[in-house]
Design goal:
The protein is mainly beta. It is built from 4 helices and 13 strands. Strands 1-2-3-4-5-6-7-8-10-11-12-13 form a 12-stranded antiparallel beta barrel. The two termini are 38 Å apart.
Length: 280
């Protein structure tokens, strides 16, 4: 049996929680969960940097990722992550995402997938005195279907997943378009996309229960579903037949459901990544 993080327990004297922290209190995220979530984001972005029609290949590498959380009082979270990607005939492992290919043609791939939901809240990481009294929210496990299509006019990728780790349920979906632009030795890959989060996920990460409202003085809040548009830019530099350096930047505009939460500040979330990988 896994132990709960000490900071997951409600502050002494507050009694049992009836909101987010009753029976689905977050388990210790652990460094492994952080690295898996980080690597999953980076590997997914790197896939768009390949030439149209090119198949993903297995690789090993390291990355540094900086994530600016929307939570009030949070500093930028910088994480070092190993990148492990395996491409088999049917199964693949890309960062933290497992997949089983249902269809794999020259231009289209359809897969069943399981991956982490790359969001968490740890109250001890916030400098806001009210947020430090809230319950933690850990990473969630997701499962669903993913599609990737390449063509001369660009690349399309999408997925639909359901939360399966007991964090309130809910659906998440993502759709992205990108187009590789060779500039000398570097390939620039601008992309735009939309990310949907259902009310179950949004409420788990950004809602404030009745008990939390009484304890912290924050307004009670039930988050609904929302759509967050984003834009990113990836630069890929081959360093030989096997080595590749990659840099990525992304800005996500928060949905109204997230912006209106008393847990958040601002209207966007930024992320950046640098990686070095060996493909084989």
């Amino acid at each position: 049996m896994r132990e709960r993080c000490k900071e997951d327990s409600p502050p002494a004297g507050n009694g049992g929680l009836v909101g987010h922290d009753t029976t689905r209190q977050s388990l210790c995220p652990g460094i492994a969960a952080v690295l898996l979530a980080t690597a999953a984001w980076l590997v997914a972005g790197s896939a768009f940097a390949q030439a149209p029609g090119a198949k993903p290949r297995s690789s090993l590498g390291v990355a540094v990722v900086a994530l600016k959380s929307p939570y009030t009082g949070y500093k930028t979270d910088t994480v070092g992550a190993p990148i492990i990607s395996y491409e088999g005939r049917k199964f693949h492992f890309r960062g933290g995402s497992f997949g089983y290919k249902l269809l794999d043609s020259d231009s289209t791939e359809v897969s069943l997938m399981a991956s982490p939901y790359m969001m968490r809240f740890k109250r001890k990481d916030s400098h806001d005195p009210q947020l430090r009294q809230l319950s933690n929210r850990g990473f969630s496990a997701m499962a669903g279907v993913a599609v990737r299509h390449t063509a001369p006019w660009g690349l399309l990728q999408g997925n639909v997943q359901a939360e399966v780790s007991g964090h309130g349920g809910g659906i998440a979906a993502d759709a992205k378009y990108a187009y590789p632009l060779p500039v000398g030795r570097v390939t620039l890959v601008p992309g735009v996309g939309l990310n949907y989060a259902g009310k179950g996920l949004n409420d788990y990460y950004f809602g404030v229960s009745d008990d939390e409202a009484r304890r912290t003085g924050l307004a009670r809040y039930r988050a609904g579903s929302g759509v967050s548009p984003y834009a990113d830019l990836t630069a890929v530099l081959p360093l030989g037949p096997h080595w590749t350096a990659t840099a990525s930047l992304r800005r996500t505009r928060l949905s109204d459901a997230v912006k209106d939460s008393p847990m958040t500040t601002g209207d966007h979330m930024d992320s950046a990544a640098l990686s070095l990988s060996y493909g084989f």
